[in-house]
Amino acid sequence: MAAYDELMAHARETEALAQVAGRLGWDQETVMPRAAAPQRGEEMAAMESVLHARRSDPRVGDWLAEANASGEVEAAQLRQIRRAFDRANKVPAKLASAIARVTSEAQGAWAEARAADDVAAFLPVLQEVVALKREEGAALSAGGDVYDAMLDDYEPGATAADLSQMFGALRPRLVELRAAILETEAPPALEGVFDESAQMKLARQIAKTFGYDMARGRVDKAVHPFSSGSGLDVRITTRTDELDPFNCIYSTIHEVGHGAYEQNVDRRYLLTPLGQGASMGVHESQSRIYENQIGRSRAFTGWLYGQMREAFGDFGIADEETFFGTVNRVQNGYIRTEADEVQYNLHVLLRFDLERALIARDLEVEDLEAAWNERFEADFGFAVDKPSHGVLQDVHWSVGLFGYFATYTLGNVYAGCLHQSMRAALPELDAALAQGNTTPATDWLQEKVQRHGGLVPPRELIENACGFTPNEAPLLDYLEEKFSAIYKL
Amino acid sequence: MAAYDELMAHARETEALAQVAGRLGWDQETVMPRAAAPQRGEEMAAMESVLHARRSDPRVGDWLAEANASGEVEAAQLRQIRRAFDRANKVPAKLASAIARVTSEAQGAWAEARAADDVAAFLPVLQEVVALKREEGAALSAGGDVYDAMLDDYEPGATAADLSQMFGALRPRLVELRAAILETEAPPALEGVFDESAQMKLARQIAKTFGYDMARGRVDKAVHPFSSGSGLDVRITTRTDELDPFNCIYSTIHEVGHGAYEQNVDRRYLLTPLGQGASMGVHESQSRIYENQIGRSRAFTGWLYGQMREAFGDFGIADEETFFGTVNRVQNGYIRTEADEVQYNLHVLLRFDLERALIARDLEVEDLEAAWNERFEADFGFAVDKPSHGVLQDVHWSVGLFGYFATYTLGNVYAGCLHQSMRAALPELDAALAQGNTTPATDWLQEKVQRHGGLVPPRELIENACGFTPNEAPLLDYLEEKFSAIYKL
Predict the structure, then answer these.
(1) Which of B145, B164, B197 delimits the end of a domain?
(2) How confident is the model at residue A212, as a pLDDT?
(3) Mean pLDDT to the nearest integer, B136-148
(4) What is the ipTM of this complex?
């Protein structure tokens, strides 16, 4: 067999095993018996060890040295395999397993500290995580910028310098927009009790409306909604709260964005290194454009209003126009995951700046809480009342996810760019959305973004799709226009 | 690290991976999206290939050569690892993968042939399966008896000669008992419609009654009930039929027998080669004694009668005594999985004799149907009406499971032995069962059998538990006594 074919046969089996490992994660969050956790930890560790050994296998290096790419697809496959091979070989196995052990412990410590609002209890183990991640970053960067190496793990090609410039342009206009909105009168909030099984029924129907294929997926409940898997088995989860049906509906639409992306990758890439989304940022662009630019648009919420009245009867909102405002209410809040479109990115930018300083040793772990609280008050205009509403609110740092937060805002920026181009290409889109028909939009996204999987590097993929260099202006313009209209600014 | 410790660390990771592979099977039968099957096939194959490579790893051979067992447990661990190592190395990887490919195809062909009642459509692929299994058996037996090597795969130490003697003693007394029963008047059958969610609720309650730990397990529905997993994550499935609540109840109790066995293995053996049931036969002894000797006893069915009246109201059976007869009704039937305690083993003996002849080339695949029909009429007194009621009824041969059927009857024989000793040890057992309290029985089984996992070879384990050499007499005595009373023979 030629080196390329041997390499691909090996990679295919590795991808299949990665799917299995991913499904263990799904199982853990949805159906696993509660006392199974210790055994599950060993099962996950065993799968990770198998995957690491396969990715760093010296034979992969030999095949890579010999293999010839006969075309664009083959070249992209080799690029992805080389990326995984280099990464697996740069991080010593001992360090990787120390990170796995410490972050597993840190996650438990974080959960306890958050529940007790006790920052001091979390700091020692966070200290350890940061130290190990700095070490890993140094190994990955091989003399280059450590934080860039971390970013590259989630967003190939991204640099802190580029992102800083983009985020620096976002921040003042978002702070200003937020302040202007909060000075005016808010649309009415949703009130009442909404049957949870009716919410799930509606959520499943909406998932299908957005093109999510139930024959290759399923929708379950989980504490924190997520999507999982690629190809023919892509599952999503959502949650219900009888006082807040929007949580269920928009969590579902968001996860459907991730899930549909994975389902829509070109079938020829199934179980190959190209058979997944291009990056975390591009992934988030899909989940966000489904959720916000489409799902929270005036046209689509008009249709949704009718669906909700069918499901729940009269729920006290007078008409579509008022409902549009209710869906897009902006209000003060501490929590990133509960934030609206306007404030969400301010939460992310705060974390990006703090974690970058942490990794660069410009900020030490013991000063993190003070830095958080100061920055929060500067951007949001009020003080954090307790750590679980501040520095302890997200699991990410305990799991060692440094460089990850940035992809949330990058995804929103990409969604803004894609939305601008999509609107230009589909002048009749609102008429379809008003009928609950998202197909023109999802077809456009499938054609321009989703079907390509990992074929093209993320930034290039978005640039090809949009026809211009990705930048923050379309997102800002969209937000200012939409919320000026709702809030009559 | 000492060779033994290195070997055990390796084995522990292998066991964790085997649990993952097992859970993929559970997922496939319960929650997998229907269009995911092709991808799942590749995922399973990748896991099998990883497991085979680990079990046959030459380092395992080196460690085995060097390792010293410091006690009984260590010696048993080495015995189990050596067994798996020898097996993995005896069967050439090419043959193993040919068997995997052909049996996967054969399973589909069997399902279609059964649906169409078309034996001829199934024979060519069965031919291939038998040829490959003969080849595998030859590799495993290394010059010894081929069928014994197959048996040994499921029941370490069992031989066709021993089983034939045992089964030969069973058959005439079972044929005679069956004929006598069917000449007398049967107890009334169950009639009416039984709400399926009430069945599941009752089934879950009964599972707990039998000591199944829901914190380390779960009960779902599947087309064919099964149990899956070891240690801290042992799941069972059952099924419901609104006309036949006994199907749900006794499938659940049967699978609880398997599941509780796995849950009750000594926690020190978790994720080691000893951390599972000793053999298929011992496993079946637990599921059968839970289901039949306990679950279909006069005392327990008295309690169950009350539970069913609570769940379903008056369902037309006048009293406990009549209900006991209804639960234990014997009637003509073609299908093994629907057979009562008296006839079940006759179905198994038929398959044992036919498959043994097939493997020994005393019977060829093209003559299998005729041989089946002839034997069936001899033992059951009436003719098979169509292949789906005869030679096409079981999936086993299409999957390559030769040597497996025997463990069903061996399990029943072991259950008979264990029941005799348990009754002698627990003279007050019926008083507890009449209150729905199975704890004295399950505690006895846990102490004598379940906690030992794979520590002791199966036959020795049962002999230690019973205090006598396992044989068919206790099962026959029990059946004759029980059914003579019910049918007033």
Answers:
(1) B145
(2) 98
(3) 95
(4) 0.94
